[in-house]
Amino acid sequence: MGHADSVIVSLPLPWARELGIAAGEMTQLRFGHWRGPAQVDYARNPGNSVEVIWNWPDTQERIPIPSHHKPRQVRGVLDLGPVLAVLIGAKAGDVGHRRIPRWAPSLFRAGNQKGMPVYVCYADEIDWQYGRVRGGRRWRPGTGVDWQWWPLPDVIYNRVPHRWEEDLAPVKQVKTEAEQRGIAVFNSGFLDKWSTFRILHRVSHLRRFLPRTERMGDPGAIGAWVQAGRAFFAKPVHGSLGEGLVFCEPHPDGWRVGTQQEGRVQWAVVSQERLIHKLTVLTSRRAYLLQEKIELKTYHGRKVDFRVHLQKDRHGRWRMVAAAGKGAHPEALSTHVRFGGTVWPAEEILSHWFAHDSDTWLNRFSDVGCAVARSLERVVGGNFGEMGLDMGICTEGRLWMFEANAKPGHHIFHHPELKGRRTQWAQMVIDYASRWSRSPRGMTE
Q: Helix 272-285 crosses helix 219-227 at what angle (to 10 degrees)?
């Protein structure tokens, strides 16, 4: 229960009469994780909308509840429904520098439509003492973001964007406090490339989709890869967005080595001994793995892999929401947009390559992707709500699975033909959050 000095809930007159609540009457109110006494007032604004007025010791907040959120009486408690908080960072910083992610308005709209208010927040702006959160949301398209004190949520959707932020004290406190208070959290952390490979390699029906991969260790092990004389990648185990990627391929004068860092690729030709030394130095600074190069098919002259975006549905089952092809810039080592990559709908590329068999390939992406997600979730544990897989098709027509991301980016949804999939993504997030809601309206089983 929160520590507000007083709470007033303003109801439209028809709804108040339907609920049998008179103006000035005291009732037990539940809104999000907050539960306590509230005084009922009749709304003076037109239309069917509810407003909650929170009188905190230091401020007053007025939170309008969209008309889709019709309250109910549940065992003598006036229930305004569940609330979802989206954790977008560890520290808010200066007020003027607060930003909401580009995808957040889609969640706000989906929450309004499905009767679950959504706000975004930073970990250091959760006031556990008073049971409140400085939450931000945009009430109407084209307007600014309102940052208000909200009640603690029923469910937290963890979208902390960086691994280093995940380890900061405010984020750790969110997980600890949420567990103690019975607040569900999903997307609890990141995956690393080596653990992902080891888990999937033990699954017999998935092993064939994985490129040869090894943890980069002593010079002898690195030398074995170099002496094999085949092209390979060195990837940071905890890396993301293509940063720190190294590509090595045989060259008449030794080895041609490309290093991708800070949006640029630098090339050099080195001897075999120099390459082994370079890779040994790399692994002394951070964990790396070695992975064989797969010769990917091309589209418009660009090598292509695919981002397969998976979501949990309202029943907790994995579903493919979208698949997009990412074409690598000719001078880049990866297909990431920040390194000049281009995004196309997967259907466009697959139809070009396979004509009438394109649907068969989409189904394979979905089937293999969902099997990968289930296998990872079973071993890693935790509560995953989404996953992004990087998959590819080689020139020989084989399907490959390269990486799995527990907090996938949203660049593929920026493509005009995939914007509708973002709406579906947002609706599925709300559905899955509702499954974990502590509210009687939730769909917990």
A: 140
